[in-house]
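pasting for the record
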Amino acid sequence: TTLDAVDYDDAGNIVFSGRGEPGNVARLYVDNSLAGDAMVGVDGTWNFVGAAPIASGVHRLRVDGLNARGKVANRIEVPFFREEQKKVASAPQASAAGTTSSGGGRTHAA
C-alpha cells in the first residue's frame, strides 16, 4: 500500500489517497489516532476523506496496508502540514493554462 497524496477538496477538507492491492485496506491514523479505513478498489487506488476535523499545524500520518487476512503487510508514516481550512477552501488554484479556479493545493507525500 502506498500513500501518493495529501490533498484538499473544494470545501477545504483534507483528502488522502494512494494505491494498493485490490481488495486490501488502507488504515489511516493521524497523530496515532485512528482516522478510518479506505478499501483499495479494483483499479488499485484508494481515497479517504476523514469525517473528524484535523486542526491546522504539523501532524503525523500513518497508513497501515492491511492484507486480505487483516494483517499489517506494510506501514508508511510521514509528517504533513494541515493548512487552515478556510485558506484552502477559498484559495484559487493555478491551472495548466495559467488561469485560476477554486480548489485546494496538493502536497505529495510519497
